[in-house]
Design goal:
Blueprint (H helix, E strand, L loop, with lengths): L11 H18 L6 H12 L4 E4 L6 H11 L4 E5 L6 H5 E6 L4 E6 L6 E5 L6 H4 L3 H6 L1 E4 L2 E4 L5 E6 L12 H4 L4 E3 L6 H8 L15 H11 L6 H16 L9 H17 L7 H12 L13 H8 L3
Length: 314
C-alpha cells in the first residue's frame, strides 16, 4: 500500500502563497456562483503552467471563467472568436508592407498576450486550429521563417461546444494532448441560479486584480518544487502503463500526459498548502487530465479515468 510520506509542515513562505491563492479563489467565486470545483481545477491548471480546455453547453460561464482568471491575476488577455473563416494569420499576426520605408513590418496577432481565450475553438477549420500547436507546446510562434517568443506566463484557455453541435470540427488528438486539463462547468446549483435570476450578479463589471503576473510566476515555480516521492512516482507509472497494456483502452497515455498528471497533482497539493503529493491528489485531478486524451474501446459505460482508478491499486 502506498502511504503519504511523513513531511514537515510547509514553511511560512509556502503558507503565505497558499493563502494568496485562496484569496484568488474567493475573488473568482464572487463572479462564478456555485463553481468552486471548476474554479479550483482551472487554477490548478494555471499553476501547473498548462493549457485548459473547457467543454460545455453555451451559456454556463466558460468565457466568464477565462476572463475572470485574467482580471483577478492582472494578466494580459485576448479573446479570439473561432469561426469557420478564421485564418492562422488572424491569430499569429502578419507582415504588412510599409510604403514609406519599402519594408515589411510584422503586426503581432492576439496570440501575443498572457491568457488567450480561443472561444469555440472547434468551430474553426483544422488548419486554423493547428496555428496554436507551436504556441502551446513551445511558447513561441514561427511566421515567415522567423521565430518569436510569447509572453510569460502564457496560457491558452479554449472553450468547446459539444461535438454533436452543428458546425463543429473535432480537435485532433495531437492538439487535445497539449491541453493539460479539460473541465466542464455544468449547470449551477439552484441556490446559485436563484441569485442570478434575482439580479444579484456583478454582470460585466471588471474584477479588480488581487495578484499579478509576478505572483503567478512565483507560484508556478513553487509548484514545481512540491515533493513527489518515489512511491508516488511508481503509482503514476502504474496508471500510465495500465492504459498502454489494457486492451480496454483504444490507445494509451503519452509521456506528455504522465508529466501533466504529475504537474496537476503538484498544483492541487500546493493549493492545499502541502509541500508533498499524496495519492488523493492524483486521483482528484485524474479525470480532468486523462479523459480527453484516452477512451474505452466500447465507448460506453464508465469513463476512462474511473475505469483506470478501479484497475490500479494504490
Amino acid at each position: 500500500m502506498l502511504k503519504p510520506p511523513a513531511q514537515s509542515a510547509p514553511g511560512n513562505a509556502s503558507r503565505d502563497m497558499s493563502h494568496a491563492v485562496m484569496a484568488v479563489r474567493r475573488h473568482l467565486a464572487e463572479r462564478l456562483y456555485g463553481k468552486d470545483q471548476a474554479i479550483r481545477l482551472a487554477l490548478t491548471c494555471l499553476l501547473a503552467d498548462g493549457h485548459l480546455l473547457i467543454e460545455d453547453m453555451p451559456g454556463v460561464g466558460k468565457t466568464t471563467l477565462a476572463h475572470s482568471l485574467a482580471q483577478t491575476l492582472g494578466l494580459g488577455f485576448a479573446r479570439i472568436q473561432f469561426t469557420s473563416d478564421l485564418l492562422p494569420s488572424d491569430i499569429l499576426g502578419v507582415s504588412v508592407f510599409d510604403q514609406r520605408d519599402a519594408t515589411f513590418h510584422f503586426r503581432p496577432g492576439p496570440i501575443f498576450t498572457q491568457i488567450v481565450l480561443a472561444d469555440e475553438i472547434n468551430r474553426a477549420s483544422p488548419r486554423t486550429q493547428s496555428a496554436l500547436l507551436e504556441a502551446m507546446a513551445e511558447r513561441q510562434i514561427t511566421v515567415e521563417g522567423i521565430t518569436r517568443a510569447l509572453a510569460r506566463p502564457f496560457c491558452v484557455i479554449a472553450t468547446q461546444n459539444p461535438v454533436d453541435h452543428s458546425g463543429t470540427f473535432d480537435l485532433p488528438n495531437s492538439q487535445l494532448d497539449r491541453f493539460l486539463m479539460r473541465i466542464r462547468l455544468g449547470y449551477p446549483p439552484a441556490s446559485a441560479e436563484r441569485r442570478l435570476l434575482s439580479g444579484d450578479h456583478p454582470g460585466a463589471q471588471a474584477l479588480q486584480p488581487v495578484a499579478g503576473p509576478d505572483d503567478l510566476a512565483r507560484w508556478q515555480a513553487a509548484v514545481a518544487t512540491v515533493v513527489t516521492r518515489d512511491a508516488l512516482v511508481d503509482y503514476l507509472l502504474a496508471l500510465v502503463a495500465r492504459t498502454r497494456d489494457d486492451n480496454a483502452f483504444a490507445a494509451g497515455l503519452s509521456p506528455r500526459a504522465g508529466v501533466a498528471l504529475r504537474r496537476a497533482a503538484q498544483a492541487w497539493a500546493f493549493i492545499d498548502g502541502r509541500d508533498h503529493v499524496v495519492p488523493e491528489d492524483v486521483q482528484t485531478v485524474l479525470p480532468a487530465v486523462v479523459d480527453h486524451r484516452i477512451a474505452l474501446r466500447d465507448g460506453a459505460g464508465a469513463s476512462a479515468s474511473s475505469y483506470l482508478l478501479a484497475q490500479v491499486e494504490v
